[in-house]
Specification:
The chain is of the alpha/beta class. The chain is built from 19 helices and 11 strands.
Length: 375
């Protein structure tokens, strides 16, 4: 089993009264991680699965007395696929407030229910974590840094979804199944999207614009939907852990872009499945974009798994000067350019370093990316 870094952070929270909420993409390994954690939790452990209709029915109108009867002598309650249970926020709140002897761990493959209906009732009552596909660091710990360096081109094409990693040679079929069967399941279930084909077209358009600024107006024209619908769909895709966005850093210069955004995919393999392109890097025109998506998504995992608080941006001016990725931690700004081609000339624009003179800078290539991703 490939150990997940997040397990250590969650284990530290097992002995208090707060609920643990574990969200992340479908097929990212939440159930496997929960099974790994279960023996460390106070026994006996009771498992509920939100995919089961009887569980959803039993919890339709929860009361503390009813929940006490359902849970019985269990000291730990694990709720898998919790986003399927309509009143899950209220259920967990009642358990935390009225059954202090019961520890709750709830997993969900989207943030819809666990964000929109849990956040308010569970204020101050939960620890929340996002489990994403395997990280580069996790694979290095499982094999070695040398082995992962050798597999770098493969990871850029097929990504880190557990089943894709664990079934070498079958990655394309795994990712095609994932993109066709699971990609929009939660969105279509909860949001009643009338024209899912437009959603699919939007995801494909976003996949082709990875690393570039995106215009909701332009995307709407491409997909035949209005700007407001594009923005709504992008928000839903973020809550389903398919994509995430970076905003632009704008602080010191009049000509800095102020309201722009870039959109990235949480996983390169899923992005390539969306556009059905698994060609080798040597035959691709989008290798630079893949490298940027890979680096930004891996950095996101590193920050999340090590509970590092940082604000993430990109930077660009109206004169087209740009920095791929900017990060601010405790007031310290760091700027990064991502270059797959080791011999390509690259530098951080002087306009940026003059505007942010105390910033740290780095050009990230295949030769030094381990330093960029070091914990």
């Amino acid at each position: 089993m490939i150990k997940r870094i997040l397990a250590q952070a969650i284990e530290k929270r097992l002995d208090d009264r707060k609920a643990i909420i574990l969200t992340g993409p479908r097929q990212a390994g939440k159930t496997t991680l929960t099974q790994y954690l279960a023996p460390s939790m106070e026994q006996p452990v009771l498992w509920w699965n939100g995919d089961e209709t009887d569980i959803r029915s039993l919890l339709a109108n929860p009361t503390s007395s009813h929940l006490r009867q359902l849970i019985g002598p269990a000291k730990t309650l694990i709720i898998d696929e919790a986003q399927r249970i309509e009143n899950i926020g209220l259920c967990i709140k009642l358990i935390v407030d009225n059954l202090p002897e019961v520890k709750v761990l709830a997993t969900g493959s989207s943030a819809f229910e666990l964000a929109n209906r849990i956040n308010e009732p569970l204020t101050g009552r939960k620890w929340e974590y996002n489990l994403l596909p395997f990280s580069h660091e996790e694979l290095c710990l499982h094999t070695s840094e040398l082995e992962e360096n050798r597999l770098l081109k493969n990871r850029m094409i097929y990504g880190y979804y557990p089943e894709a990693v664990n079934t070498p040679g079958n990655e394309q079929q795994v990712l095609k199944n994932l993109s066709s069967s699971y990609l929009y399941k939660d969105i279509l279930t909860w949001e009643h999207i009338q024209k899912p084909a437009q959603m699919e077209k939007l995801v494909q358009a976003l996949a082709l614009q990875v690393g570039n600024e995106v215009s909701f107006n332009e995307l709407g024209q491409l997909c035949g939907i209005d700007n407001q619908t594009v923005e709504r769909y992008v928000g839903l895709l973020e809550k389903a852990f398919i994509i995430f966005r970076l905003g632009s850093l704008s602080r010191n210069l009049r000509n800095e872009l102020k309201k722009s955004r870039k959109i990235y995919f949480y996983d390169n393999g899923l992005r390539n499945a969306v556009i059905n392109n698994f060609s080798p890097l040597s035959l691709r025109a989008d290798t630079g974009a893949l490298w940027e998506n890979f680096m930004v998504s891996e950095r996101l995992k590193q920050l999340a798994y090590h509970e590092i608080n940082a604000t993430r941006y990109f930077w660009r001016t109206h004169a087209q000067q740009e920095v791929d990725y900017v990060e601010e931690r405790n007031g310290q700004i760091s700027a990064f350019e991502f270059k797959w081609n080791r011999t390509a000339k690259a530098r951080i624009p002087k306009t940026f370093t003059n505007a942010y003179p105390d910033s740290q800078t780095m050009i990230v290539t295949p030769d030094n990316f381990q330093q960029f991703l070091a914990p």
